[in-house]
Amino acid sequence: VDAPADGLGGGVDHSAAMLARARRRCRDAGFDRLAFHQADVLALPFADGVFDAVYCSMVLHHVSRPLAALTELARVARPGGAVVLIDFTPHNLTWMRDELGHRWLGFSLEEMAAWQDAAGLEPGRIILRRRTAAGGESAATSAAREQYAWPEVFLAQAVRRPDSGRATADHRAP
After folding, report:
1. Which helix (DSSP H) or strand (DSSP E) does residue 42 occupy?
2. What's the pTM?
């Protein structure tokens, strides 16, 4: 499958229900020049280097082989194209694994930079959104709320190197 025509965007998800929701929300917001594909992030249905930018939000912690997924995202970005990831930093909130099906409890910023490099990307900026305590909140209240808190989130930007090859291994096992 080729990328959408110039100026178009699109979305990929493995879930037909999520794609239907995305189509409906985009249509309701007036975005009608989008293409949606049901596919696995480990085997995207696009030719090499067809996208100017690839954006992946809150996906890697769900896949069995996150480095392989990142490598696949890099593959479909054109040389010089951007690959932007948003995901969780390391945490110990096991309820996310139990209740939400997360395979990974976050990724370190150093790990992400190493994976970007291994995937043929030139690591760029990483922005960390740190949690802050609510103004005037006591330590006890903050600790009690922590049980149900969400982990910190990072945004990692990278650019596909012109000479990038495909990494073949993901040494991080579930």
Report:
1. none
2. 0.81
Please give the Cα distance from 171 to 173 (Å, whole number): 6
Fill in the DSSP letter of residue 16. Answer: H
Q: What are phi and psi of 39, to 5 degrees?
A: -160, 165
Residue 26: CB atoms within 10 A of its CB come to 17
Instruction: Please give the Cα distance from 70 to 87 (Å, whole number).
Output: 12
Q: Are 89 and 152 in contact (CB under 8 A)?
A: yes
Output DSSP code: residue 29.
Answer: T
And the tokens for 66? 């996150």
CA 118, CA 77: separation in Å to the nearest integer?
15
CB 60 within 8 A of CB 153: no
Query: Nearest Cα to 81, choosing from 160, 166, 165?
Result: 160
**pLDDT tens over the chain, length 174 residues:** 444 555 578 889 999 999 999 999 988 998 888 889 999 999 999 999 999 999 999 999 999 999 999 999 999 999 999 999 999 999 999 999 999 999 999 999 999 999 999 999 999 999 998 765 555 555 555 555 555 678 999 999 999 998 765 544 443 433
Q: How many CB atoms lie within 10 A of CB 112?
A: 21
Please check whether residue 167 is in contact with residue 91, taking contact to mean a CB–CB distance below 8 angstroms. no
